[in-house]
Amino acid sequence: MSVEFIGYVSHQESSEIHLPEGAAVNPPWIAAVAQAHEYGGFDRVLIAHSSASPDGLQIASFVAQQTRNLGILLAHRPGFTAPTLAARQLATLDHFSAGRAAVHIISGGDDIEQQRDGDWLSHDERYRRTDEYLDIVKRAWTSDTPFDHEGAFYCVAGHRSQVRPLQQPHLPVYFGGSSEAAIAVAAKHADVFALWGESLDAVRETIARVRAAAALHGRAEHIRFSLSLRPILAASEDAAWARAESILAKAQDVVARSPNFTRRPKEPQNIGSQRLLAEAAKGNVVDTRLWTGITALTRAAGNSTALVGTPQQVADALLEYRKLGVSTFLIRGFDPLEDALAYGRDLLPLVRAAVAKEEAARRAA
């Protein structure tokens, strides 16, 4: 796949500039946002996970029912479901979505967040568990005969599943985590390694680390890379930066009041957030147009760096990351529904046209 775009579907309308309101599960909102992404030409949408959020597997099934072609990327934390059961659940989702499912493995980088669901393993223990978990899941997806497994975290006897993913040999596995422990497991298991939106130099460095680790498993050329960003678009560059400042002003009030942010630790444990804060420490703008205003405000609460500019300027910035080896862009806006439509109309076609032109020139050469 030359370039892939992933959007984001939440269970209710909320963001750094929108306080969550109404029902925690809002089916009309979920359907509208999913259909907006399909209309806009996105390849997939991410359905996130936290210790407080509604069940993502059911939301994924609903999104599959509300769309026809849109892929689904379901965030999944190992450790709370038996791996054999998770394998059957994900394979079943693949059938109901007609082969549109993928899984985003997130082992968990915050002890307090994990403990809310009863998980008391240490950071590195969680990644060792994920390694074993994925060994079992993949074996359940592919084994033609009953198998046993005895490991540090799981013991299985005589397992054989009646349901296999439609996609062969298995669902695409996306993987999140920036620590050394995470990279070691991703190198073995991931089809796509996910990074948050850092500077060009930082992304180049991480891609090199992951490829070196993957080479130990003979997978250096098999692993792809995803980058998560929050594009802020406007008709002119000045208008785009003015919009960014307006977003920051609104976010200051929402972040102070929203439980999604007030419960966050002052000093994040996960390495990904620490790396984003290191980027924010370089200044309000890194490289040419990587804006860190929301990152600094939220203490790097997830995907929070933005590319600011006209659609062409932001497309050019994305293409610079693509030169480093990024083939997937996970993008979401601060106005989730409106921005999804704007990206589909104004941004995705520019990037795809540039990629098509480049590939045509390569074939001609």
TrEMBL record:
CDD domains: Alkanesulfonate_monoxygenase
Source taxon at top rank: Bacteria
Limits of the Luciferase-like domain: 21-327
GO terms of molecular function: alkanesulfonate monooxygenase activity
GO-annotated biological processes: alkanesulfonate catabolic process
SUPFAM superfamilies in the record: Bacterial luciferase-like
InterPro entries: Luciferase-like_dom (IPR011251), Luciferase-like_sf (IPR036661), SsuD_RutA_monooxygenase (IPR050172)
Keyword Phosphoprotein attached: no
Keywords recorded for this protein, A-Z: Flavoprotein, FMN, Monooxygenase, Oxidoreductase
Protein name per the record: Alkanesulfonate monooxygenase
